[in-house]
Design goal:
Elements lengths: L5 H16 L17 E9 L15 H4 L13 E2 L2 E2 L3 E6 L13 E6 L2 E3 L2 E5 L4 E5 L5 E5 L7 E5 L5 E4 L5 E7 L7 E7 L4 E3 L5 E7 L2 E9 L3 E9 L4 E8 L4 E3 L5
């Protein structure tokens, strides 16, 4: 005798609804931020002594890449200008507690120009749009390998092509490579808050509108390593933080007033 089908269908539907409910909890509300009490953490990243040499990129393996440059192109992974470190990623690593921050709707962009990722180091919030652009007249692909989120690997075959992704979970840092041109290296730092910065040629960074509290501020650099410093920020306060590298490993300097 055949078994009744209707109860089985009900059970299947119930299990499906339960599975759909799992992992789809409503987003937590954004924590209000009292701008009348927020302060600023700023500082600079330095390198003591002679910086390590940077190798020339092997662009001769693709004449279309080499043709876009007047001469050799250095790797760009150890940019130091008169002792000031460029492309260091600075961020609040601890101290924000359970605060929830709004995710920007505007994308951040990493371009492929001259067979180089520009910028080399980029920051974004989790779930913020990250736009990849191909400004070169030749094909590239973008291969990201996060440890905490899903990897991605897609081609960008024509000049002007773009594609936007989102990274779900915080991670410092995520490597981005081009499988077509293996020397192309980029890095993306993803945080669940907006308090991060990438140093420019002056080695400086600013974290603005930070709530008062006790924090661990951290620095990452692809060649020089990592470091951290504890910072106590008073209401409407301003604190200066100095990070110093000297070869390997990093030598963090104490926070100042």
């Amino acid at each position: 005798m055949s078994r009744p089908v209707f109860p089985v269908l009900l059970l299947t539907l119930a299990l499906a609804l339960q599975a759909c409910g799992e992992g789809s909890a409503p987003p937590r509300p954004v924590t209000p931020l009292d701008l009348s009490t927020t302060g600023t953490i700023r500082g600079r990243v330095t390198f003591e002594g002679a910086p390590p040499p940077m190798p020339a990129l092997p662009m001769g393996s693709d004449p279309a890449c080499a043709a876009q440059h007047a001469g050799p192109v250095l790797s760009g992974d150890a940019l130091v200008h008169d002792g000031l470190v460029e492309n260091a990623f600075v961020y609040i690593a601890e101290g924000l507690g359970e605060r929830v921050f709004a995710v920007p709707s505007d994308p951040v962009t990493m371009d492929q120009r001259g067979c180089i990722y520009q910028p080399r180091v980029l920051g974004a919030q989790a779930d913020q749009p990250i736009r990849f652009l191909n400004s070169d007249p030749l094909p590239h692909n973008v291969h990201g390998t996060p440890a905490a989120s899903s990897a991605w690997n897609f081609g960008m075959g024509v000049q002007g092509a773009s594609r936007t992704i989102r990274v779900a979970k915080p991670e410092v840092m995520i490597s981005v490579r081009c499988d077509v041109h293996p020397w192309m290296q980029g890095w993306i730092g993803v945080l669940d808050h907006p308090y991060f910065a990438v140093t420019g040629a002056d080695g400086r960074f600013t974290l603005a509108e930070v709530p008062p509290g006790d924090y661990v501020v951290a620095v990452w650099h692809e060649r020089f390593g990592r470091g951290q410093s504890r910072v106590q920020l008073e209401p409407r306060g301003a604190r200066e933080v100095a990070f110093g590298f000297r070869g390997s490993p990093v030598r963090p300097a104490p926070a100042g007033n």
